[in-house]
Amino acid sequence: MSEYDWQLGDLDLPAYLRRVGVAQRAPSLEALGELHTAHVRTFPFENFDVLLEQHPGVALKDVQAKFVERGRGGYCFEHGTLFAAVLERLGYDIERHLGRVGDASRAPRTHLVVTVVLDGRRYLTDPGFGMSLLRPIPLEDGAEDDQDGWPYRVRRIDMGASGAAWELYRLRSEGWDLMHTTDEVPVRPVDIEMGHLFTSTHPWSNFRRRLSLARHGDGQHTTVSVAGVTTRVPGRPTVRRPVADGELPDLLREMGVTLTDDELDRFLKIWPTLEE
């Protein structure tokens, strides 16, 4: 597909690089890893626009305005749309792929990842997941990578007539946990629009009923939901605590969520109605 199909001309690449604090470099695995880590540590994973019923959509110009200009974050269709465009403009050989979160026999294709080919080897990048990869992982059966204390694993599976698919696992205290299954079906802009439409409007979508807010920090990962604040540090027990009364506005700012006063007021009104 051409750059016009993906609206690459709408990307302000210098503004994005300034936002994530990374200099433009020629394509390489080291440069890709630096960019991936900077992205997931800059932009939170969040679904406030879905909960507030004001999502602008996943066109590149809208995602750029939200992430780069407003200093917000979003969910996978937004992260993946922006990251893929950045990589293409930087000269990387990339493909967009859709996946199923959790049980692939039941889940819809509502996750977006980006694969990259470097020196004849494929890598999975996944900047838009609640517990995102910090850097690319080889897209090879059995590949494992300990990412600053968080081990991940890739497994190839045979989908019969549909071809191969790729499972991504994260090692937790109880063992390897399946995150998502990505297929090899070619993706077009309309596929991302349709996935976003389901995720942002269908009553079955968790994003319509629950707050999903997560962010990688330096050496830790934090999530916020109605159930409370969860902090994970590699090698230490997971810490969970409730959200204190009146704490939410400051907590959102600490997580990098910059809501307007009107958005914050509306969110605080629906907060008690959200599911854990």
CATH topology: Arylamine N-acetyltransferase fold
Helix fraction, binned, reads 25-40%
Which strand order spans the largest sheet, edge to edge or round the barrel?
5-4-3-2-9-8-7-6
- Radius of gyration, in angstroms, nearest whole number: 18 Å
Name given to the CATH architecture: 2-Layer Sandwich
* Mean pLDDT reading: 94
Number of domains: 1
Strand content: 25-35%
Secondary structure category: alpha+beta
Shape: globular
Distance N to C terminus = 41 Å
Question: Your description of this structure?
Answer:
The protein has 276 residues and is an alpha+beta fold. It has a single domain (8-273), classed as Arylamine N-acetyltransferase fold. It is built from 8 helices and 13 strands. It has helices at 13-20, 29-42, 48-51, 60-69, 76-90, 189-201, 248-254, 261-270, and strands at residues 45-46, 93-101, 109-118, 121-125, 137-138, 144-147, 150-158, 164-172, 175-183, 213-216, 221-225, 228-232, 239-241. The chain has an 8-stranded antiparallel sheet. Strands 1-10-11-12-13 form a 5-stranded antiparallel sheet. Strand 8 (164-172) and strand 9 form a beta hairpin. The chain starts with 12 loop residues before the first helix and ends in a 6-residue tail after the last helix. The model has no long low-confidence stretch (mean pLDDT 94).
